[in-house]
Amino acid sequence: MVRRQWLFTMVMILALAIAAAGCGGKGGKKEEPVSSGPSAEVLAEGKDLFQQSCSACHGSDGKGLPGLGKDLTTSEFVKGLTDDELLEFVKRGRPASDPQNTTGVDMPPKGGNPALTDDQIKAIITYIRSIQE
Ligand code: HEC
After folding, report:
1. Which end of the chain is more exposed for a tag (fewer CB within 10 A), N or C?
2. Is the Cβ atom of 39 under 6 angstroms away from ligand 1?
């Protein structure tokens, strides 16, 4: 009887260990793609910040609003830049006086929200990439 209980305990410990290892393995797998793909947290943060700082002109779906911001989901400009280049662009903006401006409307630096940090803008960029067509 004592032996049986001992065996049962061992089996339970083993089962728990396997379950824990399984979770650990999954967690590890989830961490890895951070370098190649965005994590869910960054994406959610970027979406939030985009709604706060960019959607007034670019629309809540990023498709742009007439006479305001351009469609970012089909933007070749966005596609053509690296994340770092896009970060620099968002920080600088593109005033109507810029020869590269295409609409005659200002794209304000940081969308007019100077409080945005580089990391926050990077999260926004991650979000924009995710809604690109
Ligand atoms: C006040 C309105 C406004 C806000 C807010 C705004 N934008 Fe813009 N954005 C514009 C306008 C207007 C353009 C187009 C400029 C032009 O004519 O070239 C633009 C262009 C862009 C482009 C270049 C698109 C292309 O195809 O050339 C990117 C990228 C962009 N905005 C990102 C952002 C991000 C990210 C935010 C939020 C942090 C933001 N914008 C907030 C008005 C805005």
Report:
1. N
2. no
Output the pLDDT for position 13: 64
The alpha carbon of 106 and the centre of ligand 1 are apart by a number of angstroms equal to: 8
Q: What is the CA(4)–ligand 1 centre distance, in A?
A: 70
User: What pLDDT shows up at residue 17?
Assistant: 64
Q: Answer for the pair 54, 121: CB distance below 8 angstroms, yes or no.
A: no
Confidence (pLDDT) at 38: 83
Q: b or e along 67-105 (b: 16 or more beta carbons within 10 Å of the residue's beta carbon)?
A: eebbebbebeebeeeeeeebbebbeeebeeeeeeeeeee
Residue numbers of the chain with a pLDDT score lower than 50: 25, 27-28, 34
